Amino acid sequence: MSRIGKLPIAIPAGVSVTVNADNLVTVKGPKGELQQQVNKLISVSVEDGVCHVTRPNDEKESRAMHGLYRALIHNMVVGVSEGYRKVLELVGVGYRVELAQPQVLNFSLGYTHPIYLGLPKEVKVETKSERNQNPLVILESADKQLLGQICAKIRSFRRPEPYKGKGIRFQGEVVRRKAGKSAGK
Fold this sequence. Notes:
Layout: E1 9-10, E2 16-19, E3 24-29, E4 32-37, E5 43-47, E6 50-54, H1 60-81, E7 84-91, E8 96-101, E9 104-108, E10 115-118, E11 124-128, E12 136-141, H2 144-157, E13 167-170
Antiparallel strand pairs: 1-6, 2-3, 3-4, 5-6, 7-12, 7-13, 8-9, 9-10, 11-12
């Protein structure tokens, strides 16, 4: 039995989980509504404020999907009740970010051109630029998968490099530094 898959999912107050005949799980809460199509091998049941994910047999495919769908449903429940938040930090001289339009970010990352990134309406974005501080991009959403995908896209514009530590990183992330060239003897 999957250690993750057999754990029950507690449904907090104000959140409703429904499963229809096509195995489409819908989670509604104060932060929004999310849907996930579950594979036909996995069955999802909701009773007494607790959601259970079960599998019919111990075949490799159903074992692989058991923990996956339990984790996806749990992430949806947490997302619509509390939401997810990621903070990205731009480390480097002259690196800037600003909101060009309500859902469009404008990055200056040392290239010859600015980089514009349009964001979906499900993601709330805020930028902070204070004197003697690294610029920050604060992203909030109920959908953990979408938020992670957007953070990975932003990070891909300038990955943190190991020699000077410049680039876009998550706040609090530690970048392993390399020594670089040693001086001549």
